[in-house]
Amino acid sequence: MNAISAEGLVKTFGTGDKAVKAVGGVDLTVPEGTVVGLLGPNGAGKTTAVRMLTTLLQPDAGRALVAGHDVVREPQAVRSLIGLSGQYAAVDETLTGRENLWLFGRLYQLSSKQAKKRADELLEQFSLADAGDRTLKTYSGGMRRRLDLASSLIVHPEILFLDEPTTGLDPASRLDLWDVIRERVAEGATILLTTQYLEEADALADNIVVIDHGQVIAEGTADQLKAQIGGERIEVVVHDSEHADSAEQILNLSSGGQCDRDTHTRKLTVPTHTGSKGLIQVIRDLDEAGVTIDDIALRRPTLDDVFVKLTGRHAESETEAADTAAGRAAS
What we know:
- This protein is an alpha/beta fold.
- It has twelve helices and 14 strands.
- It has a six-stranded mixed sheet, sandwiched between helices. A four-stranded antiparallel sheet has the order 2-1-4-5. It has a four-stranded antiparallel sheet with strand order 12-13-11-14, with helices on one face.
- β9 (207-212) and β10 form a beta hairpin.
């Protein structure tokens, strides 16, 4: 059974010549008890889609059900069953961390005693117990982010929407959050995750949906998506840019002319069907040609390779332009 189901979702901002279609007919299903990763470049419409699914924006067309409830006709029912952590910390900096969580608990209609108990549990879980009685003015950006995430878990929601949840977190805090997400799924929760970190989707998502220009362009498991662009690859970083042409000729010979070259990083990449034997031969050929290299490796395709193949761009860390417009429209 699907916890989230959307058909033909459309959202346009502006009118006339200035109209921007942030989401242009997205179909999406998220089975119960799974993590689905929503990936896309800047302006793809990821956050706009999440805002429609969480009742913060009304779609211009299409239909979406969350936990069996229509997001337009039954918004209160949807809100009672979901948790949402957006890209920016939705907390009050004049209150302490404990007071913020207590307030969220009360807004979710917990008793004062229940809200206090839940706040204590979450402060401990997110390594904020020592800072719980400090005002948020004294918190670092990462601490505020963790508190915001804790607030989305105040009532153990059945369905959790995480919109770039680890943005601004240090690597250790990011791994801690991954553990929290896995724990929630083990407890039966369903999670829709948008992220700018492709390794995050690779590590957490049961299924991945890639959107670009407001439309779904690919869907599958991480392994299925990686399989679309072939097998192993040889990756070479030349020491001097002037050696790049020679290295490219050698790599083209080994791959039948399929060398991909990044002039900025001096990195050249080619597919290989001969594995370590092909790597050894390329090393010999480069050495004979006098090409000095800084690095060479044999690796499997990554989600970043998939991302570039599908969208023509690397994943970016800036806020989506169309979704920024959505935020202004919703405020």
